[in-house]
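Dear support,

We are seeing what looks like truncated structure output for some complexes. This example has two components. We would appreciate it if you could run it in full and send us the complete token output so we can diff it against ours.
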Amino acid sequence: MNILGEINCFGLCLKVSELAPLVALLIVISIGLLAASFMIRMPKHRLLTFVSAQVAAFIAIISTFYLMKCEGMLTIYLYSGYAVISTAVIFGSLRFYDRLMIRRLNAKPIGNVIGWMQEFTGRLANATVYYYDSAVPKAFAAGKSIFVSLGLLELLNDDELKAVLAHEAWHIRNNGRTPFLKQLAIMTFSSPGRGELEKMADRFAEEIAGSEALTSARSKVDKVFI
Amino acid sequence: MVKLDQINISNDGLTKFFSPIEAAILRTLWVEGEMMTSELTEKTKIPLTSIAGTLDRLVKAGYTARRVDTVNGRVRYVYAPVHTEEEVASEITTKIMDSLVDTFGRVAIENFSKYSDKK
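Here is the complete output from our reference environment:
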């Protein structure tokens, strides 16, 4: 089937189907939720609304495909392939990502050098803190590991380091859920609510280490811990 | 830059061969010897966000060495130059002469001898 035929098929099948209004309703709901998410200020509720919009869009996509009666539609094959490959990449590779980073950065457990940092993090999340050789101040979380550069360790004081560790620990605590957000974003061709996740991690860091420590850490190394 | 694969004849001094930040770091280290990151940012007046990546590159390229110092439970880098200024000058001139001879052969060598006669 050529592309024009395929577009025709979409129009035709939706026209004859009784469920077409349902798809339209889902799209309207999705757009409504998306608009609402822009107006909500609280990061958690904003994220929930945004994800609901994505879920509605996803159901709309799936039900549209379900309504198609034509044979051998390329779009459906492509979307299924896209779903299978992205699921494998997201859920498969993320599990090994921290192992890969440890090897690539030649990272070493921080427990041997600065004991309190591992103890502090251990109380917040089931994570190992690693340090690696780079002057660029940076921290990030992957899998069950938190990575901090030596540049970050020499730049920040203990309170600021606690704020960074708490921020990363929040990511680790929620890492079980973030792949689903990423997958949902991929399936609906949209972005995962990254900004909201960062804000929620910052809220947690403020609770644990105090907002002063977080603010001064941010001012010293803006945008280097994510 | 740090690999000496680009030369800008119109630039001043060391920035013919290095980026301005690389040149500033190397010059400061040649004068001061060993330095901590905070001392380097102070002396060169280059903010950490600009200098940090360059320091990583200089270390990787072998122009700068660094060790990690642990004092009172705090870690910090201490930087030192790997080569003296003369050694780097010799490396640069050799590389450039090699590439000139490579490209122009006899003409380049004749000009070198004319040049040393003049001197």
